[in-house]
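Report of the visiting student (M.T.), summer placement. My assignment was to run the structure pipeline on a short list of targets and document each run. The first record concerns Transport permease protein.
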Amino acid sequence: MTAGTLHPTLAVLNRQLTLYRRLWQASIFSSFVLPVLFLISIGIGVGRYVGSVEGVDYLSWIVPGVLASTAFQIALGESTYAVLGDFKYVRAYHAMRATPVRPVDMVCGHLLYLVLRAEAAVLAFLVVVVFFGGLHSPWSLATPVVCGLLIAATAAPVTAFAARIDHDSYFSLLFRLVMIPSTLFAGVFFPVEQLPAVVRPLAYASPMWHGVEMCRAATLGRATAWPLAVHVGYLLVWAVGGVALAVLAFRRRLED
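After the run finished, the structure tokens were exported:
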């Protein structure tokens, strides 16, 4: 089957994968090497001084956090400059609009690509973690599903944001006010309960925290902090709402 006979959503996905096959070398460090370095330096190095957290060794405790944060950062990073660039500079989305590809196909194709792109990094990281003894439950096999949901919940609203702006300077604010705080204070490196009570609601509001909690429950074989349906439902709201906003933003921008 050729790209010309594919469903429009899959045609967008095919275009993204074709581009990635030509540029994948640039993502090796951030997607594959950096998470492993975090695992070794923080999990093993710092872990010698921390000891255990919530009854498990520190390395095992941060594994799900690093796993979720890797997916989160890929989803956020790939939904900013790439989306704005395809509108403002490359004008790839305008070219797609001249074909049967609809805005909803553009958005869904982009999100499918991000899920596949980030899942490759997640699976590679899980293989490495096995050799460090960081997985303690068969439910660890569910972490790629959790990360896929987290990717959609993160990338969809960010894609909507990127489609609405006209200058990449806004992304610096997004990274400083969303990505960095989420990585530091959403339970990746220490329990959210150690934060001041007045700040904790901000951590709970982050999709990142819900992803981390579900990954941690899976790798350690324990119950989630809140009912599982609440965690899943919260991420679904972000994902579905983000897709709706992104489709609207794409449609309006392509009318210009």
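The chain is about 75% helix and 0% strand. Strands lie at 52-53, 56-57. I thank the supervising group for their guidance throughout the placement.
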